[in-house]
Amino acid sequence: MVKMRSLFVLIFLCLASASLWAQESQMVSKKSLFLRAREVLHESLKNEDYERAATAFDYLRENVSAGAPLELFEEYLVDMELKRFENAIAIYTDGRRAFLDSAYTKKFDLRLRENDGLNLYLYRHLSPFDKPIADSLIARVDSSDIKQESKDLYKTLLYSEILLGYKTKLSNSSDSVRYIYFIKDTTCAEDFLLTAQNFVQNYPSSVHSSYLKDQIIPFVQKIMDRHRLYRKDPFAHKYYTGGSNLYVYKWMGTLSGDATDYLNNKMGTSFMIELSLRSWRFSLNGYYSYGMITYLKPDFKNDSDDVSEEDVTYGLNLGFTAFDSRYIRVEPFLGYSRTSFESVAHADASDEFALGTNIDYRFWSTTPKNAFSYLTVSCFLRFKYMAQFGSFKQEGVGNNKKLGTVRHTFALGVGIGDW
């Protein structure tokens, strides 16, 4: 009985091994057939034996689900070689739509890749993919008798491939992939816009017209508007933009207001330094200055007063660019400042409300490299007028009341910064 069981187990193991060997042999055999079919396809295409090539190609395509190595883009390229243009364009344009149409979800087949002679042969004229290559493909298709809609769509989407680059990004709500576009090459941008707009107009019911009209054309048009403007004026996209600047000034000033009944003023050495940080039309300007000497008239002067010390002012202004151009920028501003009367002993420092205008003359700038360049270095001459409304108070002067002051500043400075 034991011998019978052992014999049965041995027979079972032999049968199982034979079955596994047969399956493995079959798999090896299939892979060999697939690779041989690719070799035949390669040789036939090179020899322009398109009938034999079509047989090998159809065999591979029919066995993709069984593991035949044939990428979808290879399938498109072989169809082009065999002049099956309708099939080729259908594959190509559906693939392009998957990238261009955010509302279209396409399930890509998992296909095996084979880096062999056929693959190299099919891609031989496609790198780098530029407008002359696209135009040669378009010319081949245009000479065929396929419908005009397919020709026009193919041309449009070939140009889009040259024009648009993209980055992939996972959706926050799911595992789906989104594509973020940018202009990578403008050599065929105008051709794309023309062909795309004509396609949308001539074939409004096409599934490709909706995303071209609503997504791609407006995106490209907006960017190309900037490129056209750049060609007309390289600095146009710089106007009303941000940057940072450093200015150094010499200035003159005078004082008005009720306090001048008790105060005189004169100019000393005069110096002002200002740092400006700009975002679009708005700027934040911090400055420090000295130069005006404010002193009591002789009838009110104390022995401790000194008529040689220059008042010190520091402040912060918020500016708004009202006008900007290649050479001239006009920037009204308002802000806060604080001034100490260094020549009047025991006088309170003055908190001031400031307003005025900066007028910049850009006498030199580096030329932007493209329509989206934001790093340009500029040198300026700046004229500044500023009025600071404050007060003066010292014990024993003016019945100990706060007296109004208006400090007028006329400054001329030089500056440098990025634009």
What does this structure look like?
- Mean pLDDT is 88; it is low at 1-25.
- The protein is rod-shaped, with a radius of gyration of 39 Å.
- The relative contact order is 0.08.
- It folds into two domains: 31-232, no CATH class; 243-418, Porin (Beta Barrel).
- Helix 6 packs antiparallel against helix 7 and helix 7 packs antiparallel against helix 8.
- The protein has 419 residues and is α+β, with helices and mostly antiparallel strands.
- The strands form two sheets. Strands 3-4-5-6-8-9-10-11 form an eight-stranded antiparallel barrel. Strands 1-2 form a two-stranded antiparallel sheet.
- Strand 1 and strand 2 form a beta hairpin.
- It is built from nine helices and eleven strands.
- Keywords: Signal.
- Residues 1-22 form the signal peptide.
Quick structural gist:
With 419 residues, the chain is an alpha+beta fold. It folds into two domains: 31-232, no CATH class; 243-418, Porin (Beta Barrel). It is built from nine helices and eleven strands.
